[in-house]
Amino acid sequence: MTEMSLASMSEIFDESKSKDIPFWRVILNTDIFERQVTEKQSYEKMSKMWSAMLSSDDNYRPELRSVSGLAGGDAAKYDEYIKSGDPICGPYISNVIKTALRVAESNACMRKIVAAPTAGACGVLPAVIIPMYRSGRIDEDEAIHSLYTASGIGSVIAFRASISGASGGCQAEIGTASAMAAGALTDLLHGNCEQIGNAVAMSIKNLLGLICDPVAGLVEIPCIKRNVIGAVNAICSAEMALAGIESRVPVDQVIDCMGDVGMRMPVEFRETALGGLAATQFGESVKEKMKSNRSI
Ligand code: SF4
After folding, report:
1. Which of 113, 122, 181, 213 would be a feasible disulfide site paired with 234, CB 3.0-4.6 Å?
2. What pLDDT score was predicted for residue 4?
3. What integer pLDDT is reported at residue 172 of this predicted model?
C-alpha cells in the first residue's frame, strides 16, 4: 500500500490515475495503510457504518419530540404529502427530502445516527445514498464504496479547512456533508475523478459563508431543514458535474477558501447561539424558556 495523507483532492486524483483504480479504492487502500488493517477488516468496519446508517432511517419514530419540543414529526408529515399529493419533485428527490428529515430529526430526538461528518449534518449523506439503494439502482457493495469516497472527501476538508460549525460555521458542517454526498453520488453514477472534484467544488461553493446559528444552541433549528438543502445541493452539484459542467475554481482552492471564510467568520456565527436565527426574537424566547426549563 502507498502512504497517502489525504491532504488534497488532487493527490487522490493522481493516485487514482497512476494506479488505474477508482477514487473509493484509493481511500480504502489509505485506510488499510493508516490503521494497519486488512482489506476485510476495513470493509467490515465500513459495512457496519452502512448498516448503522440504514438503521438511523429505519428507526425513525414520528411521535418523538426533541429536547425543546420544537423538532420531530416533520418527516412523517412530508411522507403523507408524498403519498396524498403530487409532489413537485420526482420520486428520488422526494425520498431524499424525506430521508434527510427522518435522520436529522432522529438526531434531534437523541436516536442513534452516523455522524457524517458531524451529528448536525448526519442526514445529508444517507439521504442521497439510501433512496438509490432502496430503489434497487445500486447494490450494497456500491453503497459501501460510496461511503469510502465520502469519507475521503471529508478527510481532505477536515485537513485543509474544517468540518465543525464551532470553528468554521455551518458551511463546514452541512457544506462538508453536501460535498461528501455530491462526490459519493458522482462516483456512484460512474463519474471520473475530475467530475467528482467538480461536484465537490460546486457543492461547497453553493453553501459558502453559511453561518452556524442554532436556536438556543440546540441542533434542531435550522439544522434539520439544512440537511435537506445539503442533500438536494449535492444532487444538483453531482448532476452538473456529470453533465460536464466544471467548477472554474479548482476543488482544493475552493476547500481552502471555505477554511479561510470560516476563520474570518465572527464568533456570533460559529455555534455560539449569539447571532443569526438564534438571535431573532423567536430564538431568544426559546433560549429563555430553555433556561427556565419550561416546556415550549
Ligand atoms: S447550524 Fe450549526 S449546529 Fe446546526 S447543522 Fe449547521 S453547523 Fe451544525
Report:
1. 181
2. 76
3. 98
DSSP label at 214? -
Q: Using alpha carbons only, what angle is made at residue 178 by residues 172 and 182, rounded to the nearest 5 degrees?
A: 140
Q: Of 262, 258, 264, which is closest to residue 9 (Cα–Cα)?
A: 258
Closest C-alpha to ligand 1, atom 8: 120
Specify the ligand 1 atom closest to the Cα of 227.
5
What residues does ligand 1 touch, defined as CB less than 6 Å away?
A: 120-121, 165, 170, 173-174, 212-214, 219, 222-223, 226, 271
> 3-state class of 254 per DSSP?
helix
Instruction: Pick the closest to residue 153 from 121, 199, 211, 113 (CA basis).
Output: 199
Ligand 1 atom with least separation from CA of 169: 7
Supply the pTM of this predicted model.
Answer: 0.97
List CB contacts of 89: < 8 A, sequence separation 6 or more: 97
What nine digits make up the cell of 294? 419550561
Q: What is the pLDDT of residue 86?
A: 85
Cα–Cα distances in angstroms (integers) from residue 80 to residues 60, 73, 130, 147, in the given order: 15, 11, 19, 30
Residue whose C-alpha is closest to residue 112's, from 72, 163, 54 = 54
Q: Give burial (CB, 10 Å; 0-12/13-18/19+) of 38.
A: exposed
Q: Is the pLDDT of residue 296 over 60?
A: no
Beta bridge partners of 270: 212
| 169 Cβ neighbours under 8 A, 6+ residues apart | 209, 210, 211, 212, 261, 262, 265, 269, 270
